[in-house]
Amino acid sequence: MLRKSPLLFRRTMSSLIHNPKTEQYTLAALNEKDVAKRPELQFEKWFKEAQEQNIVVPEALNLATAELPSGRVSNRTVLMKELDTNGNVVIYSNWGTSRKAADFKTNPYVSLTFWWKELQRQVRVEGKAHLLSKEESQPYFDERPKGSRIGAIASKQSQPIESREKLEETVAQVAKKYQDTEEIPCPEYWGGLAVEPDHWEFFQGRESRVHDRIVFDKQGSDWKVSRICP
């Protein structure tokens, strides 16, 4: 008796979502001769163009982490707050109770992806990360709205809580503690994560899925630039 292949079987099954349509990318091209000598400079150029085109939240990125030894991967959308002069991408979050914190404690390597649909571009970043000190994190913490600072203290991110009401009660207790001051210390478990890239990819969508992909790979203090297939 002949058996259907798994692929054929999947094609004959009904789908909740079936989306065969593909968008054609025709806005621009990316050539090796046109990219900056260093990836952080190329990223700065593209990021400014995203801002100029009024891309909604261009600093939004997908942060992927992996727990060891299982290798199980998790990801989430966070916001880049800084690209420093060393080319490190800096984000801020809870590094005490969150899922990404648990992953990071076993594995310091992370991956980031920026996606700017309107420009038909994405940027991928891979590298090793390290936590900023409380002293380094405090200046940004001070810039946050007071409610966001209170929320960072009150919430044990990613941990179970019995109800929304219980969460709001805890927030109210913290708010009361700091009701007469704007000076709120950054929690020990909250702060910045600086990703030190050793790999960047700049992706420009092209027609018929024959995309331009230019990569920078760290080699000592220099970067090797190459093109890879779509």
TrEMBL record:
<protein>
    <recommendedName>
        <fullName>pyridoxal 5'-phosphate synthase</fullName>
        <ecNumber>1.4.3.5</ecNumber>
    </recommendedName>
</protein>
<dbReference type="InterPro" id="IPR011576">
    <property type="entry name" value="Pyridox_Oxase_N"/>
</dbReference>
<comment type="pathway">
    <text>Cofactor metabolism; pyridoxal 5'-phosphate salvage; pyridoxal 5'-phosphate from pyridoxine 5'-phosphate: step 1/1.</text>
</comment>
<dbReference type="InterPro" id="IPR012349">
    <property type="entry name" value="Split_barrel_FMN-bd"/>
</dbReference>
<comment type="pathway">
    <text>Cofactor metabolism; pyridoxal 5'-phosphate salvage; pyridoxal 5'-phosphate from pyridoxamine 5'-phosphate: step 1/1.</text>
</comment>
<keyword id="KW-0285">Flavoprotein</keyword>
<dbReference type="GO" id="GO:0010181">
    <property type="term" value="F:FMN binding"/>
</dbReference>
<feature type="domain" description="Pyridoxamine 5'-phosphate oxidase N-terminal">
    <location>
        <begin position="51"/>
        <end position="175"/>
    </location>
</feature>
<dbReference type="Pfam" id="PF01243">
    <property type="entry name" value="PNPOx_N"/>
</dbReference>
<dbReference type="GO" id="GO:0008615">
    <property type="term" value="P:pyridoxine biosynthetic process"/>
</dbReference>
<dbReference type="GO" id="GO:0004733">
    <property type="term" value="F:pyridoxamine phosphate oxidase activity"/>
</dbReference>
<feature type="domain" description="Pyridoxine 5'-phosphate oxidase dimerisation C-terminal">
    <location>
        <begin position="190"/>
        <end position="230"/>
    </location>
</feature>
<keyword id="KW-0560">Oxidoreductase</keyword>
<dbReference type="InterPro" id="IPR019576">
    <property type="entry name" value="Pyridoxamine_oxidase_dimer_C"/>
</dbReference>
<dbReference type="InterPro" id="IPR000659">
    <property type="entry name" value="Pyridox_Oxase"/>
</dbReference>
<keyword id="KW-0288">FMN</keyword>
<dbReference type="Pfam" id="PF10590">
    <property type="entry name" value="PNP_phzG_C"/>
</dbReference>
